[in-house]
Amino acid sequence: MRWKLARKRAVSGSDSITAVFTQALKIRWPRFVHVTDCHRRFEDEGTAMNELSSSRPLAIGVWASLVFFGGYFAVAYLVGWHNPAPWESAIGEASRWCERVAPGAFREPVNALSNIGFMLGGLWMLWVLGRDEQAGLPRVGLQGFTSSSLVYAGAAWFLGPGSLMMHGTHAAWGGWLDNLSMVMYILIPWMLNLSQMGRWSMPQFLWIYLAVVAVYALLRGLYGWGLGMNLDLFGLSIALWVITESLYRFWSPTFRWLSGGVGFIVAAVFGITPLEMAAAPEKYWWVVLFWLPALVAKEAPVRRRNYWPWFLLGVFFYLSASAIWQTGKPDHPWCDPDSLIQAHGIWHLMTAVATVCFFVFLRTEREKESLAT
Questions:
Q1: For 200-219, how does the pLDDT look when each residue is reduced to its tens digit (9 = 90+)?
Q2: Total-model pTM
Q3: Which stretches within the chain are classed as H helix?
Q4: What are the residues facing 140 on neighbouring strands?
Q5: Residues 6+ apart with CB under 8 A from 127
Q6: At 143, is the secondary structure helix, strand, or coil?
């Protein structure tokens, strides 16, 4: 009788169809409705867990930042920074980057603390990736929590602690860490490009990347700048990024082998001409590595990127920061060791913005077919 009444109320429109149907099920099959309610609760809990997992990398990044600064200040005030590197200036003198060396927790306060920009940029990237997860976007490239996106965001964040340790402590190991963090970041873009054109799997990319980082860290620690073989891997990687990006955009069987010439253009932008290279081949032997991408990039990439505006903005911020960086030296007329505005600090902030621009640029990557439609 109650079942018939429920059907009659549904037809008359006095209740919503869903509510009446549920009421009828409760009358007829109460066990089924109980299971359905439990399933709904499990779905709600699953959504909550998904939101929790999507925020976990950001939470880890925030905690890592707090732990880093907590450890830094603990060592600075309990032990202090002793035995500065022989190339660093004494307390009270202008540092290599203009700012006067101070006796407190930070040897170069402005130049050290401006590295927070990198850390904030890395945390913002993790927040964006978490939003991708919450929105249910497919995990591809630098969208969502992929290996490449987390490596990029982590390396961008690590630029902050790496550089801060150099400017804050003036220790030789601080300079090593600063240079290592720069190489860890700059390796990623051109290796990601080669991973697509060389058809590497993601595990292959990660193993190659980690192997290069480990070997570089060891050689840099043993032999210092140049690794004992006149090799500036950071500068070379800038050229390799532009070369691989050119190949990524204009790949063809012919351009594949001509792409090495792009490296000479990049070197010229930074003041190294082909004539200078030819005059000192033992110093610039590494130009042969300009053709490394040609050896690896055997096939065209399956995706495309939008270079305007984010890639060009990243290039603009980096080149502008490099120009400002040149003014942050003691012998430059614009150097004021006691100013709160330091050129090297501006370099840190502008290059941090550049890493964010390149992050957004790499997220524009789409399958060629989807771009065509």
A1: 999 999 999 999 999 999 99
A2: 0.86
A3: 2-12, 17-28, 30-78, 109-113, 116-135, 147-169, 172-197, 202-223, 233-250, 253-258, 261-269, 274-279, 292-296, 310-325, 343-362, 368-372
A4: 143
A5: 58
A6: strand
